[in-house]
Design brief:
single chain, alpha+beta, Alpha-Beta Plaits, 2 domains, four-stranded antiparallel β-sheet, 8 strands, 25% strand, globular
């Protein structure tokens, strides 16, 4: 059995409220085992013998759409990949020290050259971006509410779905589970 993390888009935001016990039961209905949720923002840890990540994502998305009545884009990562995300230094130490917000966006495929140019154009006096594999890194010197950047803007301009998590959440998630691996 392989352990995965599902980062779900549109859980407990925008009026789409889902109790974590119910979300856990939906993953169990699919046949996943050792299902746990982490923080009420759509982070689900589970085990499965299935190996094809794209098929796992599609299966989760179909079941959640059927059960919840709206699209829940799903981004699957392993704990080794999460550890890589947590160790990656997307920005200089001084930039991290200035940042009030530090987030990672999960996407399905690496950004191509044109998409990277668009991402670069999101840079402002307070916002900076970087991309590595299937993650987008964003730091903001002021609070996110003071930024002109948003996940919706990202999706509209890059024509791809994304879900963002704070780096502290990702670090806590990793620290909780790395030892259990």
């Amino acid at each position: 059995m392989k352990k995965y993390i599902a980062f779900l888009r549109a859980i407990n935001v925008g009026g789409h409220n889902v109790k974590m016990d119910y979300l856990k039961s939906l993953f169990e209905e699919i046949g996943f085992s050792n299902v746990e949720t982490f923080i009420a923002s759509g982070n689900v840890i589970f085990e499965t013998s299935k190996k094809d990540r794209k098929k796992i994502e599609e299966e989760i998305e179909k079941h959640l759409f059927k059960s919840l009545g709206y699209e829940v884009v799903t981004f699957i990562r392993t704990f080794a990949e999460l550890e890589e995300v947590n160790k990656y230094q997307a920005f200089s130490k001084s930039k991290y020290e200035k940042a009030k917000a530090n987030c990672v966006g999960f996407i399905k495929n690496p950004l191509n050259k044109d998409s990277l140019k668009i991402l670069k154009n999101f840079t402002t006096e307070i916002d900076e971006f970087n991309s590595q594999k299937t993650e987008v890194y964003w730091i903001c010197e002021k609070g996110q509410s003071e930024s002109t950047f948003s996940g919706n803007l990202f999706e509209r301009k890059l024509k791809t779905k994304v879900t963002f998590r704070g780096v502290k959440t990702l670090q806590k998630l990793g620290n909780k589970y790395y030892k259990k691996m």
